[in-house]
Design goal:
Blueprint: H1 2-24, H2 26-37
């Protein structure tokens, strides 16, 4: 039971850390996404 709690806690900590890093770098991530995905036109 304790090992599962440690594993779940580590998973939650990792996901939270990724979200915090993405939030702090949101402006540069948005510029990167617009450069890579903004110029593609979808054919309808």
């Amino acid at each position: 039971m304790f090992a599962a709690l440690i594993g779940f806690g580590g998973f939650v900590l990792a996901v939270t850390l990724i979200c915090v890093i993405a939030y702090r770098n949101a402006d540069s991530l948005e510029c990167w996404a617009k450069k890579h995905f903004g110029s593609h036109k979808h054919a309808n």
